[in-house]
Amino acid sequence: MLRIITVCGNGIGSSLLLKMKIDAIAKDHGYDVQAESCDSNAAVGREADLFVTVKEFKDIFPKDAKVCIVKSYTNRKKIEEDLLPVLDEMLNR
Predict the structure, then answer these.
(1) Closest to 67 in 3D by CA, of 51, 78, 81, 80
(2) H helices then E strands: how many in the chain?
(3) Which of 9, 37, 73, 86 could covalently link to 14 via disulfide, CB atoms 3.0 to 4.6 Å apart?
(4) What is the mean pLDDT of residues 3-28?
């Protein structure tokens, strides 16, 4: 199971929507993930297999953190385009 943290500025709206999209995408594609949403300040102190966020927050993470940059918090097609190759790579599909 991959532990995923979605990240936005306040950790309430955008990251929660992204988390729900990731849950649906993972279910539809057969990925075993546990996703949660978080604000950008708290995210840097958290541990996860993968952080998913937009480009504005990409530089807040340590260099060794696995980060997936998505073009949208809400557009499923755009999220899939950015996320699925990363999940495939991480799960060796």
Answers:
(1) 51
(2) 3, 4
(3) 73
(4) 94
